[in-house]
Amino acid sequence: MQSRVLAILIAVVLALVATVALVVYVNGADRRAIAEQDPVYVYVAKETIKAGTSGEDAQNRGWIERKEVASASAVDGRVLSPSQLKSRFAAVDIVKGEQLLLTRWVGSADVAGRRLLPIPEDHQALSIGLDLQRQVAGFVTPGDKVSMLVTRPREGRGEQTEFLLQNVQVLAVGTTALTNAAAQGGGRVNQGKGSQSVTAVTLAIKERHVKFVVHAVEQGSIYLTLMPPNAGAAERGGPVDDTDDIPDTLE
């Protein structure tokens, strides 16, 4: 009985060794075949990249990889460097394994023929009128991620400022209006003082947060902060109000 079990174990081990040897041989053969055909590097989609995805976002999420192929398999007009995708967005869905073509990546104004990027699932597009100061001097652009702070009155504590949302995707920037009650349709207009021109910043807001954002805009004053790629949530801390003393240092 023991000899039979031993024989079976030896057979299993030999089969595993043979399988590993075969895989190594096949991979080596592929590399040798490519080496004989003047290999070049191309960039391919590691996962399906949906239309409207920014080049930076696709890279940060690991959806793009560099791959060595025979020169005959490299397509003309391919992306030669990830830097070429800066400030560009996928014009169509790019399937897994597809070589990246520069013509399939366009500027934000050309995405799906609109200035609005596709709305993520379980989100809604919401526009907020802000003057340049409150949208980082106009540096907020489609595809960016921003944090939203709100200042609003709190009973017995004056006005209070706190983070409302973080890592919110910017879908579009455009449409100019004047900051007056008639143009805003009533409510508290405090996004810019005087008769300054403001720009509508369209954001992708999770459905469950939409009513809170609208209420904050109507009852308070909104500031956006621009976040770097792959940024984590900023330390929220507690809200700041009129009873707080500004510390000598914010370190």
Description:
The protein is an alpha+beta fold and 251 residues long. It folds into two domains: 39-113, Antifreeze-like/N-acetylneuraminic acid synthase C-terminal domain (Type Iii Antifreeze Protein Isoform Hplc 12, Alpha-Beta Complex); 123-237, no CATH class. Helix content is 22%, strand content 30%. The protein has four helices and ten strands, in the order αβαββββββαβαββ. It has helices at residues 2-35, 55-60, 181-184, 210-219, and strands at 39-45, 64-70, 89-90, 105-106, 123-130, 145-154, 158-178, 197-206, 221-227, 240-241. The strands form three sheets. Strands 5, 6, 7, 8, 9 and 10 form a six-stranded antiparallel sheet that branches. Strands 1-2 form a two-stranded antiparallel ribbon. Strands 3-4 form a two-stranded antiparallel ribbon. Strand 6 (145-154) and strand 7 form a beta hairpin. It is elongated. The termini are far apart. Mean pLDDT is 76; it is low at 175-195.
Explain briefly what this protein structure is.
The chain is α+β, with helices and mostly antiparallel strands and 251 residues long. The protein has helices at 2-35, 55-60, 181-184, 210-219; strands at 39-45, 64-70, 89-90, 105-106, 123-130, 145-154, 158-178, 197-206, 221-227, 240-241. 22% of the residues lie in helices and 30% in strands.
